[in-house]
Amino acid sequence: MSESRKIKRALISVSDKTGIVEFVKKLKDYGVEIVSTGGTARALREADLNVTEVSEITEFPEMMDGRVKTLHPKIHGAFLALRDNTEHVSAMKTHQIEPIDLVVVNLYPFEQTIEKEDVSLEEAVEQIDIGGPAMIRSASKNWRDVAVVTDTRLYESVLNEMNETGGSLSLETRQRLAALAYTRTASYDLAISSYLTRQLSDEDLRFLEPLNPLGNLVFIEAEDFGENANIGERISDEEKSSEADSNFSDFASLELAKATDLRYGENPHQKAALYKTLQETGGIANAEQLHGKEMSFNNYIDTDAAWRLVSDFDELACAIIKHTNPSGVGVGENNEEAYRRALATDPVSAFGGIVAFNKIVGGKVANSVNEIFTEVVVAPDFEADALEIFKKKKNLRVLRVEKSNNENRVEYRTISGGILLQNRDDLKINAKNLKVVSQRQPTEEETCALLFAWKICKHVKSNAIVFANEFQTVGVGAGQMNRVDSVRIAAIRAEKTELDLNNTALASDAFFPFRDNVDEAAKFGISAIIQPGGSVRDEEVIQAADEHGLAMVFTGYRHFKH
Q: CATH for 437-554?
């Protein structure tokens, strides 16, 4: 290690005091003089550790409810002075500034504060740290001479190096710490910017956007697709383009914090890690793992797909996912009934799949799930007997998850050279939104089956075809290059499991470009079709439905999933 710097004097000012007493005791073992502020100084003194308060150095008391305490030349000069610059050294001597070699600062808990329900703007503002970020930035700028520690998890590695070197930290370590420090202040400022932006009106946002160099001020809100939304009326390409322009800013930023390294990515030769979005709670990234071996990259992808699907249901539902596509989905009076219906669609593909429930899981269904090999079970919660049953399977991963609080519902997809952003597909419809285009009206049972199939279709890779009754999927055709093949594959899956295709509903994630899809589907005994409509051949497709005596409804919106 090159250019090691002996740590002789440290400033300690921490909001999170986890491990700080033990850390400072070790620093004291190396003869480090400790300078500290208010609450931190009190905590250290209560542990019989001698400290010098900042106010003794600045000769100014903490004031304005602690808003002003470290903003002083004797503090920032001690960070910023270059030790090999004669002019800087002379200025330090003239103004009686003693150098500080180590700065240990963590910030007011702004992010945690704004996660609380009903937090007021005044409460949030009081948790905006000023002195902390200022000290971090000053000290980090001079990382050639000063080390900066901004996270309690860094204490151990810092002490280990000091132990090896007799109380010094290397230039490489100081630079790494500075990089982490700037990352921390950047994420902190973005969290504040994001929160304050959510308090602004649309008019304020439009005023600020041309002046915003980062673009993180604009948070995209999904359209309100309520009961009265006019789903049957399609938006033109021009209107969609205009709408997109008004929702997304010229620049965008994304706040992420590393949660853990993963064993590998999609394949063993790929490295991978899990990062969490800083302003989002709930969701699969924040799930609590109650049992089983470590989650893999593919487990996270598939489990997220499963959880998103069941989260679309208000009624009790179960989904079994394989490679992000549903092999089966069922609803029922209880989890056991819903699981059995989901499994019946494709029990072969369910082997090694992900099972998701949207209600609390009990012991009876846990026994059923354990009958076949399952990678992950995810649910809002588990009864004690269910957990005991699942724990009999050593490798089965059991996740407890809460719904995400992501108000903005924005998705990111990477491409070479850039990132695509879009609103999540949160569109939901009901019977009032359907436009009947066939001569025959769908029955009440058919309408329920159509809406059920449509809800599943959104979660199937395009080109997507779903056969379903009102309680379960009967066949799923996913990811084919043409829609007719998807129809055939969905029917083949139903025939293999001997599920009855007669009088089932068919959902298509996009319009039928030709009538051949309807002709093919009619061979298998379906009675009703739900699709977006919008093809130049809609009349031919509707005519085909009428010829086969099918009910057909248009939604006006498609559900592509790429």
A: 3.40.140.20
